[in-house]
Amino acid sequence: MKNIKTLLIAGLLITTTGVFAQDKKVAKKKTIGIAQTVSVKEDTPEIRAEKQTNLMKEELNLTPQQTEKVSVLNTKVEQKIQAIIDGNLPEEKKKAFIAGNMKDKLAALSTILDDKQIAKYKALVASNKL
Fold first, then answer.
1. Element containing residue 33 per DSSP (H, E)
2. Is 12 in the same domain as 75?
3. pTM for the whole structure
């Protein structure tokens, strides 16, 4: 009788541990459906914006003034995208809203960057570097 109780308790502990381990793995990343996986818990919108800004600064040879404007824009867009991801909308609506935000971002960037930089930015986006 004691052996049965011990086995049941051991089985419950093993099962419970496995379930909790799986939950943590699933919660770390969230796919938003536009060939982009966001590290929801590990990267804040501000960190993602900073990474984008640094890459754009390097790849597009941004001036200090452009870098500042791009940083502000990237932060605003990433915060909006995070709100969309965290919302209770259906996936299709999330995709549409995110695509709209990216289109608006491109329009705003065209007032900050020159034509050559915009062309290079579009190429970076197409190659999934940004």
1. none
2. no
3. 0.68
Judge contact between 43 and 50, C-beta under 8 A.
Answer: no
> Whole-angstrom Cα distance, residue 112 to residue 106?
10
Residues 39 and 75 in one domain: yes
Residues 60 and 98 in one domain: yes
> Domain range for residue 21?
1-28
**Tokens describing residue 101:** 């935000």
**Do 71 and 101 lie in a common domain?**
yes
The tokens of 48 are what? 């993602």
Is the separation of the CB atoms in 105 and 77 below 8 Å? yes
- Cα separation values, 64 from 26, 29, 74, Å: 39, 33, 15
Residuewise pLDDT in 10s, the chain (130 residues): 556 655 556 555 565 555 444 444 343 445 444 444 444 456 899 999 999 999 999 999 999 999 999 999 999 999 999 999 999 999 999 999 999 999 999 999 999 999 999 999 999 999 988 7
Please say whether the beta carbons of 84 and 101 come within 8 A: yes
